[in-house]
Amino acid sequence: MIKKSSDIKLNVRPVCLGAEHLFYYEGPCRFGKGDALKPGYDRLANEQFHQVFLADLAACASDGINILPPFRAGRTDDWDNKEEIWTALAKDMHDTDLYIFYSSIAVDDLAVEFATRFRKPVMVSPASNFSVTTIAAAILAKIPGYPVYPECTWAGVSKTMDALRAKKVLANTRILCATRFGSPTSYSSIDSFNCYDAITNRFGTRFRFVNIHELIDQMSPARPEGNHTTPGRRTPNLTEEDMKEVKRLADEMQKDAKEVDVKREYLEKSLIAYVTVKKNLDLKDCNGFSVPCPDTCSTRRLNEEKFTFCMTHSLLMEQCIPSACEFDVDCVLSQQTLIAVSGMVPYIGNTSPLPFVDGRFMEMWGPTDEDRKRLLKDKNRENIYYMQHSVPNRCMRNPEKKGAYAIRHFAYDQGFGAVLRYDFNQDAGQQITLCRFSPDGSKMMIGSGDVIGGGAYELNNCNTHIFFHVHNQEDFFKKQALVGNHMALVYGDFSKELERLGGMLGVEIIKA
To answer: Which domain holds residue 236?
Structure first.
């Protein structure tokens, strides 16, 4: 099945600790007067504290957080530490991602012992007061680098839980890589991840592979003798039900599009590719996709079959399933990172500065003369960047609502390869956040800016531009050179969320 980012929850187990005095007495470990000193009072008081703790935790949990039933434990003033506590806590440990303790003096050591026994991520309720720093320092002294996350407010707890959920999303990401050659990079995307094992070790992300010829063979009905590349083997070839879905999608997209500049047969061929890829994602339990464009193009099979994968990337992205052209699995994981922290739908593309030198813009590939004339009027023209690729989608502004779009074609001469077009001019002034990992996964660049407008909406081929301001073009460019070309982009400001996640992942943050 395809497990989207939104399907992945962080399972949080509250642990309510408390101490109970068995006798009447006063002193350094006992405060109060009257009924507060009587046996049994502590049990009632602890329960009140725990109920407030559980209510506060529930109130700060976002939709991606699953609060599990609480576990109650503690000790008496006999300073007991019963093994049955640890046996009971360990029972459901495989289903729990984070333990958050309510603690206080006389039981703080139990939280520390939990860490040394089980090595699971730990937080402490901000209402535990001094226990937050006490427990964090004690754990880190015993186990340097331990995943303990001290926060002094419930807002901080909420942000940390969301970041831990995003980390879990990356660990549960499985990218389907349609390969032609054995290299981890394409001939056009040499700045992608250079070692898949290193990425798995760092993030938990895994990679599944399908040969590009096998994938394309599946885009036609099955033959009795089997596909050419896998003779006699049962394969998930195009079915009658698949073709019904293709035609339904084609009807819907043509009906809702503002303009359609591609033949119906070519639209259907690109949608066949999308349906086939999605079937493979489902069968291989993957939730991300990439395919090498020029490597596949040079087989001539795209030309023979009259389709491109552009529409596949667009339609997957608008469902928050990360997908990137040019075998850029780095960009797939960068998309997934943005999806995990924002819930927004990404866009990707070649990302480049548009330098303004000696009163004019440099001749960069992409922007048209009309674009340049319009951008000359921009008061901040020294800090313009742009992104381009033919994979925009209809849900970038709102994941729940499709915006206006056009459908055009990729191949100039033959007119095949249906692609979406989105007019970024309607989004002028919108904030954006950009992200990309370095090829070795050790760095994450976080960029921010605001939309100026768009370009190439009316053009065919690998087009559709978004122009945006960055804080400092030269600084952005120097930092981008550490991570690579394609960047993922979402609407909104999620820089702080990415920084928090990056700290948990142990990557170097490069902010521009």
So the answer is: 173-511
